[in-house]
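Narrative summary of target 7.
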Amino acid sequence: MARMRAIVFGDDRTIRLEEVPVPEVGPGHVLLRPHFCGVCGTDLHAPSMTAPFRSGVVMGHEFSGEVVATGEQVRGWEPGTRVVVNPNGNLCGACGACRDARFNLCRSAVMENGIGIRHDGGMAEFVTVDPRVLHRLPDAVSSEQGAFVEPLATALRAVRRSRFRLGSSAAVIGTGPVGLLVVQALRRAGAATITAIELSAFRRQAAVDLGADLALDPETEPPTALFGTELEPPEFVFECSGAQGTLELAVDIVRYGGRVALTGLPSRPVEVTATTVIGKEVEVVGSIIYVEEFPLAIDLLAKGAFDIESLTSLVLPITRFEEAFDALADPVSTLKVLLHPTQS
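Modeled conformation, tokenized:
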């Protein structure tokens, strides 16, 4: 049986490079050769998470690739077609969320069948998927850009869920890749002012380069002291870090009657002062992955609406995955790291 290299989440909760069998193509599945796969913060923190990674799963949920072969029941997908994978597209079609067309809330798709978390993903030389999760990449979108469709769709969802209005002010807490994509989306949506709040000087500069008007270091420039005195409180705040204390910060700095959108996933429960939320009539809105934002992200990339190249810090073969994970853990000099599964 032919074998391939893959990044596997082991039974002992370690991440390692293994030789595994090349997956067989079932009658209703498509065999892909991944081109580029982004390393996500979820991947980075997988060993310390109690869920949802399945032991033995091939990791990687932000990836582009090409069709290699199809099962006998598959129609419409030809070998050589470049694609991007929606890792949360294995919908059950029967739950309340699916019936209400809120597909991002389908537990089966997200928690039980997520690609790269429960089902094998793109950090491998080959992977099989259900054709329902495939989206064609137009010629105007490179395979490298295709690896950013998933995080861009997540950022677009957060902005759309916030009901952001043209000419409004905004603050973005946490300017990792998703936060920086939110900054770009807000700038293109006509934000009057965008303030980034970020501990890393490197990432603060990236935020300014990509459209923020101002970037604050919360350790030396306390946002709670500046907003309401030297700075006008923002009408919208986007929490993109999931760090402890940032939800409280968002509620503190947002304007009275403002809206806070949460998209950063915290590793443990966070606290917020309810009297502040009530007293200021703050609306707190959660945003999880995407629905129609996935094809929208592809379309916007094809139009050149987002700067993806500035977000790519490193592209490495999967044989150097440890270097990739270590780099991502260092926000001093790294934004996004891509793995090239078929590169030596």
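Residues 224 and 253 are 6 Å apart (CA to CA).
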